[in-house]
Inverse folding.
């Protein structure tokens, strides 16, 4: 899978996240350690990065008052649950089948689901600020 301008959602930070997700998925399809390399660690990495991206994207959509946010969150949760179950089973299917599923899901999610919010976030200054200022620590660390 290759990122194209057609996939741009109008915010550079979210586009960069999508590029990174594509890179991780491509790494699953063509591992540096060869076909025998376990997919478990790569799926964990994909899940962690997806968790970060989904949190940023959802924060941006909340800042815009995006009405379809609950449905968008449901789609994110479904993907995260599936990745966790595959990782727990060390893939549970062939690398090629897994890559095909991931490519199709991400392509559909970006080109259909995410494109629905593009007109709302693209010109929204608050969305730009939230996307720019979001940090991983907001997902994985909270002060006691």
């Amino acid at each position: 899978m290759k990122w194209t301008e057609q996939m741009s959602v109008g915010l550079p930070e979210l586009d960069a996240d999508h590029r990174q997700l594509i890179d991780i998925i491509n790494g699953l399809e063509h591992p540096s350690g060869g076909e025998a390399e376990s997919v478990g660690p790569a799926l964990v990495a994909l899940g962690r990065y997806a968790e970060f991206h989904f949190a940023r994207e959802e924060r941006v959509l909340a800042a815009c008052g995006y009405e379809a946010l609950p449905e968008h969150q449901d789609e994110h949760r479904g993907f995260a649950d599936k990745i966790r179950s595959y990782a727990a089973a060390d893939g549970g299917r062939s690398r090629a089948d897994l890559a095909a599923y991931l490519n199709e899901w991400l392509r559909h999610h970006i080109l259909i689901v995410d494109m629905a919010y593009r007109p709302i976030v693209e010109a929204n200054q608050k969305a730009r600020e939230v996307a720019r200022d979001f940090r991983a620590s907001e997902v994985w660390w909270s002060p006691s």
